[in-house]
């Protein structure tokens, strides 16, 4: 039996699944779960100590699904406690705080920790991941925008939701879609259905959008050396325009990246004889 296979998978019968939460301390993992299961929000921070475990029953696609939720502590101090809970998981709720860039940057490290704990025979491909860009109610402090988060998630074939455990925004939709995807996975013999796993844009497009977002000036954005000729600038521009044109590229953030490239080219050509 595959490591990720749920306990029962007959259509119409009840199903038992395991989901875990992952993400830095204080991003709101416990509050998201509490908002969904108990319909309430606690503003005082009560750090999870090691692991919190809960069971909930939900109705998904006319099946009764018994969900075992393992809510992990995000603090590095609890690594030893949480590391053994990664195995036999069908779904992961991966959370970051849209006002804490560090928590977004840490998502790769969370995936790496899980991969390491699953070992060489663990298969991350057949797990449903949902990324929660949480605390969207704190608009004043937001520093990771939707397209950046969505690009990261979708380029990995993960679901993406903007959530607020405080207001409840996005929480029910997130869980509903997450559970439906897990049931689809179980009904597909524990394998992620093809439609969910492939992004509708290329890695080159995603990497280029990220590079443009992080570029330090117009030269850097076009990927040419400072002092490059008109021809070099135009050539670099054309290549990027073909890659990112909104008619051709559906990657999150492509429209802004395309506009930035157009502006960079205009600014550079103004100053080149
Ligand atoms: P650890 O258990 O330490 O890993 O943290 P956690 O990710 O479980 O965070 P928790 O859910 O305990 O929330 C941390 C703090 O953020 C608490 O003070 C919450 O009230 C607050 N919080 C959580 N979600 C939201 C949200 O959507 N909006 C706002 N404004 N605050 C939130
Ligand atoms: Mg917690």
Automatic annotation (TrEMBL):
Tell me the SUPFAM superfamilies matching this sequence: Chaperone J-domain, P-loop containing nucleoside triphosphate hydrolases
SMART domains hit by this protein: DnaJ, RAB, RAN, RAS, RHO
The superkingdom listed in its UniProt entry is Eukaryota
The main location class comes to: nucleus
Q: Which compartment or compartments is the protein found in?
A: Nucleus
Keywords of the record: GTP-binding, Nucleotide-binding, Nucleus
InterPro entries from the UniProt entry:
DnaJ_domain (IPR001623), J_dom_sf (IPR036869), P-loop_NTPase (IPR027417), Small_GTP-bd (IPR005225), Small_GTPase (IPR001806)
Report domain J positions. 217-273
- Cite a GO CC annotation: late endosome
Q: What Pfam families does this protein's entry cite?
A: DnaJ, Ras
Molecular-function GO term, any one: GTPase activity
Q: Which GO terms describe its biological process?
A: phagosome-lysosome fusion
Summary of the function given for this chain in its UniProt record:
GTPase which can activate the MEK/ERK pathway and induce cell transformation when overexpressed. May act as a nuclear scaffold for MAPK1, probably by association with MAPK1 nuclear export signal leading to enhanced ERK1/ERK2 signaling.
Q: How does it assemble?
A: Interacts directly with MAPK1 (wild-type and kinase-deficient forms). Interacts directly (in GTP-bound form) with MAP2K1 (wild-type and kinase-deficient forms).
The record's family statement is: Belongs to the small GTPase superfamily. Rab family.
NCBIfam families per record: small_GTP (TIGR00231)
Name of the featured protein? DnaJ homolog subfamily C member 27
Tell me which species this is from. Chrysochloris asiatica
